[in-house]
Amino acid sequence: MEKEIITSQALYGYEHYLYGEAYYGSYKGMRYRVARDPLEKVVFADEAKRQEGQFMVTVWPEPHSFENTPDEKKQSFYFPFTEEGRQQVIECLNEQYFSNKAIWDEAL
Fold it and tell me: How many CB atoms lie within 10 A of CB 64?
């Protein structure tokens, strides 16, 4: 893989996703969404309930928002809902950027 362009600091920390909120970002034509799936507030739930979910990362080309982009233009990937899974999300975002760079460049 080329140089890492989306880093751990670019995303919210693991605990943020326990509140049932997604994180949205973009990088040079690639938009992305990171969320716990299912998207629900589990911050006050027991540990077993918190770990039932998984990270879902979705990428799509600019210019539209997640809600206004047709599903066929989106790609989603799933990872364990752990700190290690959050690191896998970052690796996935970087891999998607470099492997589909032509799509993102065209979106600009």
Answer: 13
3-state helix, strand, coil in the chain (%, to 5): 35, 25, 40
pLDDT digits (tens, 9 = 90+) for 58-102: 999 999 999 999 999 999 999 999 999 999 999 999 999 999 999
Distance in angstroms (rounded) separating the CA atoms of residues 58 and 65: 12
Output the six-digit token pair for 85: 């899974």
Contacts of residue 56, defined as CB under 8 A and 6 or more positions apart, other chains included, come to 33, 34, 35, 36, 37, 76, 77, 78
The reply to whether the predicted model has a pTM over 0.85 is yes
- Interatomic CA distance for residues 103 and 108, integer angstroms: 9
